[in-house]
Design a protein that fits this description.
The structure is a single chain. It contains no helices and four strands. The chain is elongated, with a radius of gyration of 18 Å.
């Protein structure tokens, strides 16, 4: 990635396909996630950024909400 959006939204598709029944089944095992996510390891750094402080290059996202479909 070269940059990140102002808001980052993830969608977890928690289904598995049962070949024998030819149907999909919802996965109901617990799912954990961090309250803060640093995306800086996933961003491509250009040469001009090498002289900057490492802390100033962090791209921290803070969890604001969760939607669970039952």
């Amino acid at each position: 990635l070269r940059s990140t959006p102002p808001y980052l939204i993830f969608q977890c598709l928690r289904f598995v396909y049962d070949i024998a029944k030819r149907d999909k089944k919802k996965v109901s095992t617990p799912f954990s996630f961090p309250l803060e996510l640093d995306m800086s390891p996933f961003i491509t750094q250009d040469n001009s950024a090498t002289n900057q402080d490492q802390n100033s290059n962090k791209l921290i996202y803070v969890l604001k909400g969760i939607v669970i479909h039952v």
